[in-house]
Fold this sequence. Notes:
The protein has 2 domains: 1-108; 110-226, CATH 3.30.1330.60. Helix content is 52%, strand content 17%. The protein has 5 helices and 6 strands. The strands form 2 sheets. The protein has a 4-stranded mixed beta sheet. Strand 4 (148-154), helix 3 and strand 5 form a beta-alpha-beta unit. Helix 2 (129-143) crosses helix 3. The radius of gyration is 53 Å and the shape is rod-shaped. The relative contact order is 0.12.
Amino acid sequence: MVRGLYVEVEGRGDSSGAIVADKIKLSDNDLRVALAVDSTVVPVENRLGIAEDRVARTEQNAQRLSGQLDELTQVANLAKGGAAAAQETAEVAVDGVNRTNDRISSLDDYEVRKSESINFRVGSAVLSAESKAKLDDLANQAKSEKGFVIEVRGFASADGSENMNRQLSQRRAEAVLHYLAENHNIPLRRIVLPFGYGEAMPVADNSTREGRKQNRRVEVSILVSKGLTNPVTVNRSVGASTREQ
């Protein structure tokens, strides 16, 4: 049978509900029309079916590509986040290295924690009771410091010859050294090599009695390395936390 063909059928129905035809009538014109319709419509329908199938596949491909784009976007976002975290970590590391280098550079940079001026009588290198008390306080503080050294510098007034005063200032510095080592167990490695400067670097006028009294002295200072005492603070990427070393 051709789609669209007009026919007349005479017959009877059977037990299954189908029609058993006795006569089938059709005209030549109806047949020609049906054949023309069939030859035109069927190819069109076939092409439509192919087109619909292509559209369906295109939609599936579009959905698949959309999913891939979403995945690529997520990967790109993760990569950006990882790159930012890596950059931040690198910056923290560089900051830590710079601070450590600064700390190492500061090992030879000292700050004065305490200073005392120990005075002497004319021509003498003997420590007075008052001078010993000052040295006791200084030694006790030095022991509480981290990475300390003690600087000892001896001086003299302009009384006497220059050579004698140089030797006298050296004996005064050594007197302080011996007192700190013997009475307070200060290691000699903690005491900067004591030196006598003689009449150099006066703190007062040598032309007056009071000035010469002030110049007969030993200057004792507790020095602490900045590189050992200053904390290194490192900024962390999470919560901007800090850590002291």
